C-alpha cells in the first residue's frame, strides 16, 4: 500500500540508501529509469525524480545525461578530520561572557548571512501545526491556561516526554520530569544542584559557549577534556584526571555535540558511566541534539544506560521543533528534590500555553514525521556545506563529519586567526562563530564553527564560499614568500 504524501519520496530515498548500504546496489550500478521506478512503486514520475535528485545531492547517486542515475562510488572525503587538541588537565576560571554577548548580538542580525546561529530556520521546522495547537488552546481555554502551573510543569507534557523516553530504552514516569525554560535552564538547575561556587566541572573541549557562559556566571571552574571528533573524550585520560584532582561533575553531550557533532560509541558510554559511578562524580547529560540523528537509530543517551542512577538528563525542543517556545526538561534522578527547590527559587514555573500546545502535538503522532523531514533537511545542508568548504577553503582545512545535528567544526593551519576572519566577514555581511568562544581558556583561535540551520540557498552557499576565499587570502598573506 502506498505511503502518504508528501513524505513518500523520503521513504523511497531511504529504501535506496539501505539497498546501497547492504550491497544490493553496488557502486556503478544503474538504477531503473525514473519512469520505471515510478511504475514499480505506484508513484508519480515527479516523486520518483525527487527521490533520485535528493540522493544525487547527498552524493549517493550520480546522473549521466541520456543514460540515467547510477550508484556513486564510495566518496572519499577530501579534507581530514579536526585534530584532538592538546590541553593541560588543569582547572581554570572562565572569562568568556563579553565575547559571547558580542557573538549573539551579531548572530541575531538578520541582515547577515546566518552561519553563526544555531537557531533552526522556521522554514525548515515548518511548525505551523504546533502553532495552530497553541492558538486553539488560547482561544478555547485561554483563562484556564493563564495561570501558574505546578513547578514540575504541565502533567500532559511530562506524560508525553516520559512516554517518548521508552523509545530510547529508558523507563521513567511523568513525576521524574521537570519542565524548564529550554535546555539552558535545565543545565543551570543541574549544575547548581551538584556544585557550589568555586567547584570544578569537567567539560568536552571544544564545547558549546553557552555552557561556558553559564559556568562563568555560577563561579565554577573548568577542566577541558580533549575531545576526538569521532569518539569523544578519552576515558583513560579522565580516569587519571579524577585520580589527581576533585571534580564536582562532568557535563557531556550524549549525541552530536556542539560543535563537533560526534556520537560517542555505546561501549565508551558504558565505560564512562562505570568510571563516574565508581568515583562518585555525577554526570550532567546534554541531549539537546539527540533527535537529529542521521543513522537508522537514535543513539541511546547515558540515562538509558545507567537507569538514571548517576545522571541528570537535560534536553529541549529548541533544536528540532520550537526554538521560540523555550521548552526544555530535566530528569534529575536522586537530585530531583534539589532541582525542584532551585526551580522554585529561579523561575517558579514555566509558561503554560507552550507546554499545552507541545503536549497536544506530541500526542497527535505528528512529531516523528516532522523529525524525519527535519533530519533529512539538516543532513542535506551539511553535505552541501561540506562540498563548498572542500571547494573554497584552503586545502589544509580540516572539517568535522557530524553524525547528527547541524553544525560543522573547521580547523585551519596556524597562524590562521578566526577572530580576524570574523571581523572581515562582518564587513562582508557574514556571521559565523570563531573558535575561541568554545574554550574556557580561549583555545581554538585557528578554528571556527559554521551552522547549517538555515534553508540552503544561493545566499548561504555564497557566504560559505566567500569565507573560504577570505580564509585563503589570510593564510596566503601570513605565509612568508
UniProtKB/TrEMBL annotation:
UniProt similarity note: In the C-terminal section; belongs to the class-I pyridoxal-phosphate-dependent aminotransferase family.
Organism: Pandoraea fibrosis
CDD domains: AAT_like, WHTH_GntR
Pfam families in UniProt: Aminotran_1_2, GntR
PANTHER family in UniProt: HTH-TYPE TRANSCRIPTIONAL REGULATORY PROTEIN GABR (PTHR46577), TRANSCRIPTIONAL REGULATORY PROTEIN (PTHR46577:SF2)
GO molecular function: transaminase activity
Keyword DNA-binding: yes
Ranges in coiled-coil conformation: none
Name listed for the protein in its UniProt record: Aminotransferase class I/II-fold pyridoxal phosphate-dependent enzyme
Annotated keywords: Aminotransferase, DNA-binding, Pyridoxal phosphate, Transcription, Transcription regulation, Transferase
Domain called HTH gntR-type: residue spans: 6-74
Domain of life: Bacteria
